[in-house]
Amino acid sequence: MESTSSQAIITCKGAVWWGGGEKDVSVEEIEVDPPQATEVRVKMLLASVCHTDLLRAKGIPSPLFPRVLGHEGVGVVESIGEKVTNVKVGDVVIPTFIGECQECENCISKETNMCLKYPPTFNGLMLDNTSRMSIRGQRLYQLFSCATWCEYMVVEENYLLKVDPTIDLVHASFISCGFSTGFGAAWKEAKVQSGSTLAVFGLGAVGLGVVSAAKMLGASKIIGIDKNGMKKAKGEAFGMSDFINPIESDKPISVLIKEISGEMGVDYCFECTGVPPLLTQAVEATKTGKGKTIFMGAAAADEDFVQVRFRALLLGRTLKGSIFGGLKARSDLPIIAEKCLKKEFPLDELNTHEVSLMEIGKAFELLKQPDCVKVVVRI
After folding, report:
1. Which overall architecture, per CATH, does domain 179-323 show?
2. Which of 129, 133, 97 has its CA nearest to residue 16?
3. Any idea where the Enoyl reductase (ER) domain is (predicted)?
4. Is the pTM of this model over 0.70?
5. What is the pLDDT of residues 7-28, one digit of tens each?
6. Given CA atoms 192, 196, 197, 203 in this order, what sign does their dihedral have?
């Protein structure tokens, strides 16, 4: 394919974090290089905010600064490298957390979405350990495979998914990470069965994704747990059957779940908060011998090491970690995108606040508001 890569460096606006915490941000002129052979330069249209962005702004788990954050979003392809085959200039695309080569041992096995060739990237750089962004001659780090809180970014083509151009742009941004992570956890990781019971710890975008998938898969009881009472209505909109606010009781959450689901507990638990003590509660709330707990919440650095009661696992329960909900970028995410296009999810319920790129400093404060689920960033 003939290259359509522009050789020009683009100067544009980007939200730069300098390492002093979530408030140490300035929207500045940055330079974005042309895409290399298998890369794509994307003009961002819209982005959204995830709690993982908040952790990275604080330098957790690695203080990589200066940094342009954002990993959820949607944009249009501005230019491509000479070896790019999956997208063309003008395509509407969303970034993905991981790639899928469909050739490595893990991709062929169908047992995991952890592609060995295109894994999650945590060093803030491209696959060749260089950056395509800079400010006043200084290298800029991105978040994972991308940095969506800027007007332009460069992404390896295998971390992009082409979507229908008529898709709601806000919805497209939501499925690029958070909502899809939860949906995939119920669908691909736990493989929720019709008639089963489950509990979801945390009713943010990830937890509501779990609820949505569980409802579609025919779960008979879907229990949502959140200390924010305002999340009850959100959970019900996505299909939740029961709600627990743990601050309203002195009993352990696992006991409250068993009281609702029967003394044996639920078939599945999903830990979406990253709060370490809740992991034991989630495991103990599942059925002895066959209960499954999936955890995907991102914890702070000093909480990386968690404890789960030995007996809880010894009695036959399963605890499994999940990246991007077990979704494969090419095989599975297009299915969610199609459902999104058909409005099969009430994703408008997630959109509670909006800011412009120039107002990005307000985003994290809004995320802490009790009525906030997602913050949309208008680029």
Report:
1. 3-Layer(aba) Sandwich (3.40)
2. 133
3. 21-377
4. yes
5. 799 999 999 999 877 778 899 9
6. positive
